[in-house]
Amino acid sequence: MTNNFKDKLGEGGCGTVFKGKLQSGRFVAVKMMANSMVNDKEFISEVATIGRIHHVNVGQLIGFCTKGVKRALIYEYNGSLDNYVFSQDGTVSLSYKKLFEISIGVARGIDYLHRGCHMQILHFDIKPQNILLDKNFDPKISDFGLAKLYSRDDNVMTLTVARGTMSYMALELFYKNIGRVSHKADIYSFGMLLMEMAGRRTTLNPFADSLSQIYFTSWIYDQFNEGKDLEIRDATEEETKMTKKMIVVALRCIQMNPVDRPSMNKVIEMLEGDADLVLMPPKPFLVRFEKNKDDEINTSPTEALILSGDTIYYIS
């Protein structure tokens, strides 16, 4: 089914994902759980979590397999979102309108996880690689290896260790004095995802030549704040408006204080509503600090975001 596991789609802390094909000709994503998960804890957690979910924008678990210490999960698959957002040769297969529609689908899927199940499901790893697309390019949230279930009455959650992918993780997952962990952590991750979809690039590029290129979010905020037009190649007027709305909503989602981030149902309302009614939030400021000779960071640990070479960049 996987052609001897030759077509690798991605890899994470919980396992490696390969492309497969069923006898019917249907393509699937086969997630092989990491050997460190042989106690079945993560495997059972993911199967149990997905078994509770029934939504058009949440990945359908087609099946699972156990053989000896090997564990596999099988999902429907037609490519993941990162293949279309981060094109290697500069070409783009999806229109801006389609990306906008995908963003609303992802938002609806997250809203269902937060409010539509009998338990509140926090994903903790929303990113382009975990958004699978079906044959109609409808988005499906996948990979629940880091997900946690809580009572719908819980407003704050307890975690023993930060979980997720660094570029998409809210700061309260690291620093308690910023705010308590809640569903707003998924909102932050979605905001980073939305920004990347709108800009068709990663939000952070540590190899860029200038500071404005390093943190795309800070740069795009300044463009909007100065009233400059957003130049979008090969986009219609309608698509340009959609993209601008995606960016403003993304900026609202990535506010440092979780209290300042909207709920996902509010995000959907903003994306589907009038762009002129979506107000610009405060700017996520980018500040630069150098490391000293003893490799200590000359700033508060609550502010540090990312290390690039000998420089720390963070949002304050």
From TrEMBL:
<protein>
    <submittedName>
        <fullName>PR5-like receptor kinase</fullName>
    </submittedName>
</protein>
<keyword id="KW-0732">Signal</keyword>
<feature type="domain" description="Protein kinase">
    <location>
        <begin position="3"/>
        <end position="286"/>
    </location>
</feature>
<dbReference type="InterPro" id="IPR011009">
    <property type="entry name" value="Kinase-like_dom_sf"/>
</dbReference>
<keyword id="KW-0723">Serine/threonine-protein kinase</keyword>
<dbReference type="Pfam" id="PF00069">
    <property type="entry name" value="Pkinase"/>
</dbReference>
<keyword id="KW-0418">Kinase</keyword>
<keyword id="KW-0808">Transferase</keyword>
<dbReference type="InterPro" id="IPR008271">
    <property type="entry name" value="Ser/Thr_kinase_AS"/>
</dbReference>
<keyword id="KW-0547">Nucleotide-binding</keyword>
<dbReference type="GO" id="GO:0016020">
    <property type="term" value="C:membrane"/>
</dbReference>
<keyword id="KW-0472">Membrane</keyword>
<dbReference type="InterPro" id="IPR045874">
    <property type="entry name" value="LRK10/LRL21-25-like"/>
</dbReference>
<dbReference type="InterPro" id="IPR000719">
    <property type="entry name" value="Prot_kinase_dom"/>
</dbReference>
<keyword id="KW-0325">Glycoprotein</keyword>
<keyword id="KW-1133">Transmembrane helix</keyword>
<keyword id="KW-0812">Transmembrane</keyword>
<dbReference type="GO" id="GO:0005524">
    <property type="term" value="F:ATP binding"/>
</dbReference>
<keyword id="KW-0067">ATP-binding</keyword>
<dbReference type="GO" id="GO:0004674">
    <property type="term" value="F:protein serine/threonine kinase activity"/>
</dbReference>
